[in-house]
Amino acid sequence: MEEFFLALGDLPLHPLAVHFAVALFPVALLFLIITTISSKLRDRYLLRALLATVATVPFIFIAQQSGEALSEVMYEPQPHSEYGEMLMPLALWVLAVGFGLGYSLRKSWPKFLNQVLGFTLVSLSIGAIAMTVVIGHSGAAATWTGVIP
Description:
Strand content: under 5%
Shape: elongated
CATH class: Mainly Alpha
């Protein structure tokens, strides 16, 4: 299975795949944060923001798997590979809490519970954005440090 994620034609898949994850996942999370915070936008756009986030998760998976396949052939950059393994569980937690919030709003659960879920969702989303930046930076540093004079 690792060979499947290793290359796209003659190029390694990982450097291509990470650009989708690093660009689209944080944008979807920003959309999710804005719709969670704004009561006017929440009712109309929360489901769309969650679906946009769901649409970006496969890119995280492909980036992670292609990174593991590439590390088998070349080298495993530390701490980039360790950070990369943390993003998928974090993304899944964001989605779980997000859909929990959507469900609680539909079922008119107590306002306090909705506020706790909303706060948790925004906090996890901010953490996921920060983790994406750290992963992208550590990968770029592992690849490019010392290459350009």
